[in-house]
Amino acid sequence: MSVHDFVPEDDASGANQAHKIEDNGGGTQRKPRLTPLHLSEVVQLPRREALIAGLLDCAAMSIMFGASGTGKTFLTLDLAFHVARGQPWRGRVARQGAVLYIAPEGGHGLIDRLLAYQLHHKLEPESVPLHFVREPIDLCHGDKDAKLLIEHCAALSALRLIVVDTLARAMAGGNENAPDDMGRFVLHCDRLRLATGAHVLVLHHSGKDESKGSRGHSSLRAACDTEIETTTNEASRLHVATIVKQRDHATGDAFSFRLDVIRLPDGERTSCVVAADETPTAQEGTPKRAKLTNGAKIALRALSEAILKEGQDPPPSAPAPIGVKAVTIECWRQQAYRRGISTGEERAKQQAFKRSSEQLISLNRVGVWEELAWLPS
Asked: What predicted TM-score, i.e. pTM, was given to this entire model?
C-alpha cells in the first residue's frame, strides 16, 4: 500500500469510496470500501515483510518502554541507524530504507547523541537517510497533524521506520489512562503505518509499578505487534532490552548492551553510543529491574536539595551536560546525613551513603567527576 492509497476516516465519501487491493495478476483493481473479500482474494494479498528479521515487521507497530535511565532512546537511535544504513542489527537482517524520527522533546541532548554516533562510526551524515521532526505534534486530538505528516512522508523514498519519541509528548496533553485519548493515538499510529507501509515504533515509559509494564490504558498494549522493555541489570551494570510481547514472532529474546561514553569535539560535552554486550544476561530474559533502595531514594533527594541550595557551574573539563549545576560529593553526603540516610553511628552513615551513591551512579541517575556530583538531567 502506498501513501497515496490512504484515505483519512473523515475524508471518506460513503459507500462509493474506493480503495486498492491486489488482483491475481499482480496489478490493482478498485473496490468500494468495506467490501468483503473472499478467502481466495485474501490469501493472495501482499504478505508483511520483515524490517528486522524475526523481530519487527514493516507496516506494524511496536512499543519500547522502560524507566528513565535504562537506555531506550540510545537503543532506538542505534536501531534506526542500522535500518537507515541497511546493516544487520544483532545478527538479524535489516531492510534498508529511510527513517523518520519524531522527537518533539529532542533538544540539544538529541543532537549530541547523533553527533556521538556519527563520530564513533565515522559516518558522513549526507549518506544516511535519517530524517527528524523536532516540532510539537498532536497525534491524539485531531487528524490535522497526522494528515500533514503523511503528506511529508510521501516525499521520503523507501520509508521503512517511523519513531515516535515519546508517546506522552505526541499526545499533546492527552490522558494516557483514558480509553478515548489512547484510542485516538493508536488510530493515528495505525494510519501512519498503513499509509506509508513503514513500521511505527513508539517510545514510552514504565508505570509507577514497573512490574505492570508500560503506563497508560491497556488498549495501547493490545494494539501493538511487538513490545520491548528496557531495564538495567544492577549486578552486571548492563542495560537489557527484552521482548515481552510478539504477535507473530517468538517472545523472550533479550539483548544486553553498554552505553560507551564519547567525548564531543568541543571537549566539554559527552554523550553515549550503544555497544552490544553478549553476556549470559542477554539470554536469561529475566533481568533485574532498576529499582532504587530506600537509601538511594534518600540520597537522590538529598542531591537535588543540595544542588538547589549550593549548586554551581562545573568546570569546562567536567563531562557534565551543559546547563546542569553540581555540588561537591561531601556537600551531597552531609545533606544525605541530614535527610536520615542512616540512624546509626558515623561508620553506618558512611556505608549507607557509599552503597546508595554507587547504585545511583551505576544506573546513570547521578553523574560524578573527581569531587563533584550532579543530576544528568
From this structure: 0.67
